[in-house]
Amino acid sequence: MTAPTVSREVEASGPTLTDPVAGRRGAPGMAVSAGVITGLDLLSRAFAFALLAFSGPLAAGLDAATVLFVGSCVLATALGLGFSDGDSVFGAVQSAPLVVLLPALAVAPDVSTAFAILGGSAIATGAAMALMARFDAGRLVRLLPYPVIAGFLAAAGALMILAAVKMIVPNPVEAITAPGAALTGDRAITLGLALAFAGALRTGAALRPDFGSVVALVLGIGAFFLVLDLSGIGVSGAREAGLLSPPPSAAGAGTGPGLAFWAEVDLGVLREALPLMAAAVFIGLLGHLLNVSGIELGLKREVRASRALAGTGAVNLLTGVLGCAPSFVSSTSTLIARHLGGRSRVSGIVACAVLVGGIAIRHDVIALAPRFVPAGLLLFVGYEILDRWFLGEARQQSRQDLAIIGGLVLATLILGVLPAILVGILLSCLFFAVNYARLETVRGLADLSVRRSAVDRGPAETAALDRASGRVATVTLQGYLFFGSVDKLVAPVRTLLEGQPPVRQVVLDCASVSGIDSAAVATFQKLEYLASAHGAEITIAGLSSRLANAVSRQGVGAAGTALRLAASADAALQAAEAQLIREAGITEDSDDARSALVAACGDAQMAAFLLDRMERLEIAEGATLVEMGSGSSDVFVVDKGRIAVIGRRSDGTPFRIRSFRPGAVLGEIAFYLQTPRTADLIAEAPSVAYRLGPDVLADLARSNPAALTVWHRIAAQTLADKLSRTNELLREASS
Question: What's the CATH number of domain 442-583, 3.80.30.20, 3.10.20.30, 3.30.750.24, 3.30.70.330?
């Protein structure tokens, strides 16, 4: 299965939104309210992510992280106002890259190293985005199969859930195996409140996908403090019980972002974190590209993807220097704001104002934040991602795809992020090989009764080819010939060689082959042995010069073997037809204009009469018989030599369309349609042809209507033969 264009966002927020204001710009009041709600949503997530990354030993960096994470939302959203053509596109620090970095943050010895890990990841993400924008490489995401993409993102949701639980219970496994020892005192209460809070957020989002989770957030926190007040516990009692976060002084209040931390980084720990940082960059790029795709579908117009990549890369470079985590656009926030009526830049401006206000009151928020709130919010976000990319896919995806998605989630949880990415890359390669191998390598099979060269011949040569049509077959190939697909070529060739009558010349038409690998070359050599054993020959035709040189260097097509190379399938067919004609004893002078007319009308006297009325023309080699664009409606019968139909490409270079040997009739289409000539008629060798012009036909209409009828029957039979062969080709191509 190949990867479809994925339009689902990384940060899912529930059911698909309908647009109640589609077709009109949102009213100013609606745009403002949409900005307020979206700003509060982004603010709460930024606070939760900061608490997730900077808690415990790293709590001294919480204040700076809060400023950075919220500030990154402001910058990314302000940037989104520039490439959305009127709509607000929101951006934020995202959970997927952050959770990938949590194992590295857990072993960081100090706040400076933690900021360096986050900032270094953001800088690398920004640089990668800038390069992708420069070379327009955003479409590369489509090379990953959908189950692999979904597996990575679902794993990010699972890691978010695990991280949320660890905020309360450092050892979740112990909580399962020995709950009595792990869930003591405030931990059990906090975990229960976090689960209930996450359930409330989920319920709110299900009831109102636009602002339900924000309402649930406000009501949940309000209900908590109301219970504290009514029960007499109060804020101080809740803090003593471990239900509230530490006071600002213990949380590092006043420690603002800066550049000084780079001088205090533990380089050894930073080096060990590089693989996880690379994984975060990969997940960040993937998430950004998928979110842009989701925004395009939601807004129902194209987003300037390269500009979005370049701008988001610049934001990551700037905030990364200060130690912020990677950020990118959020399709969830963008589409929620649009659903609420935020169909102008006003929503983005208002959201930025809300975020800036949140920075100003961050100390109070941190001091009064119940411990279950960030954990519950992260549980909600993690579940939404996991549901969007895995749990909710059960009815839409095949069992195989679901197994792969689930396998990547388990691999991430059990083995870690890096092994899971390696597994995903291996699965992508396996998907490519298996799915490409399912494509038909052999596009068509045809013998000479269906497909011949672009040479029209006289009756004797045509009859000889008709009798021996089963001795030459063309096998049309397509796509990339590699170890997974090329084996499909052996069976049909063997069937041709062992059939009745057996085929003695097989032409492999490779004009539509884009590439080959060493396994394909080995298969060609196997076909050579097969052809030799049956006394047959195989011609590989139509390879590009690059591919032809590559196979020649490996001995394919060497002299004295049953395997040959030809520039084109037409050249190979011409050679095969010429050999059959020689074997049939047909000589060069077996066909001429007289024999062609006799064969067509069955009356030698009538043929002689018509030939006497036609004008005999002698054409030197290279001379033009008819020019393209001329109004000539003459019909010609070739008597000797060879006349070619030469077309011209858009740049004026000539190319041969067909050739006509003695006994062939040409020009009848222009005669009947009375249209200008669409190609030149040029002699490829010294030639003789007989011309029948409209003046002769007009005279026959008056003096000998029977002869005119015979001529029309000859022309009609010629057209019918050509149409019949064309129909056979079309039937073979569509089968």
Answer: 3.30.750.24
Separation between Cα atoms, residue 157 and residue 146, nearest integer Å: 17
- What CA dihedral angle connects 632, 635, 636 and 637, to 10 degrees? 180
CA distance 81 to 294: 17
Q: Which residues pair with 654 in a beta bridge?
A: 648
d(CA 256, CA 66): 9
Instruction: Report how far residue 482's alpha carbon sits from residue 133's, in angstroms, rounded to the nearest whole number.
Output: 32
Just give the CATH number of 593-734. Answer: 2.60.120.10
According to the model, what pLDDT value does residue 423 have? Answer: 84
Q: Give the other-Cβ count within 10 Å of 603's Cβ.
A: 13
Please report, as a single letter, which amino acid is at residue 145. P
Q: Does the pLDDT of residue 18 top 60, yes or no?
A: no
- For residues 207-213, give the mean pLDDT: 84
The secondary structure element, H or E, covering residue 182 is helix 179-182
The pTM for the full model equals 0.63
CB atoms within 10 A of CB 490: 13
Closest CA to 46 of 374, 519, 319: 374
Distance of alpha carbon 556 from alpha carbon 540, whole angstroms: 9
Read off the pLDDT of residues 355-376 as tens digits, 9 standing for 90 and up.
999 999 988 888 788 888 888 9
Could you tell me if 539 and 506 are in contact, meaning their C-beta atoms sit under 8 angstroms apart?
yes
Q: Rounded to an integer, what distance in angstroms lies between the CA atom of residue 327 and that of residue 96?
A: 10
Asked whether the CA dihedral 637, 642, 648, 652 is positive or negative, the reply is negative
Q: pLDDT digit string (tens) for 52-96?
A: 899 888 988 998 999 999 999 999 888 876 655 666 788 889 888
Percent of the chain with pLDDT over 70: 88
Q: Do domains 442-583 and 593-734 have the same CATH topology?
A: no
Contact 341, 21 (CB under 8 A): yes
Identify whether the C-beta of residue 538 lies closer than 8 Å to the C-beta of residue 506.
yes
Q: What torsion do the CA atoms of 172, 176, 182, 187 make, to the nearest 10 degrees? A: 70
Q: At what angle do helices 274-299 and 95-106 cross, to 10 degrees?
A: 170
Whole-number CA gyration radius for the chain: 38
Gap between the Cα atoms of 362 and 47, Å rounded: 9
Domain ranges of the chain: 28-434, 442-583, 593-734
> Contact at 8 Å (CB) between 65 and 251?
no
| Contacts of 705 by beta carbon, 8 Å cutoff, 6+ apart | none
Q: Which residues contact 56 (CB under 8 A, 6 or more apart)?
A: none
Residues in the chain: 735
Q: 44 vs 238, 434, 602, CA distance in Å? A: 21, 45, 94
Q: How far apart are CA 574 and CA 120, in angstroms?
A: 64
Strands 680-683 and 643-648: antiparallel
Is 346 in contact with 35 (CB distance < 8 Å)? yes
Q: What is the mean pLDDT of the chain?
A: 83
Q: Which residue has the tokens 């993937």?
A: 286
CB 94 within 8 A of CB 11: yes
Six token digits for residue 53: 């990354």
pLDDT band at 151 (very low <50, low <70, confident <90, very high): confident
Q: Is residue 625 classed exposed, middle or buried when 0-12, 13-18 and 19+ CB atoms within 10 A define those classes?
A: buried
Give dist(CA 690, CA 695) in Å, integer: 14
- Give the three-class secondary structure for 352: helix
Strands 455-456 and 442-447: unpaired
Structure tokens at 644: 């070619």
Q: Is the peptide bond before 501 cis (omega within 30 degrees of 0)?
A: yes
Q: Which residue type, as a one-letter code, is found at position 548?
A: A
**Residue 623 has what pLDDT?**
94
Measured at the alpha carbon of residue 350, what is the angle toward residues 347 and 356, in degrees to the nearest 5?
140
The DSSP line for 695-722 is HHHHHHHHH-HHHHHHHHHHHHHHHHHH
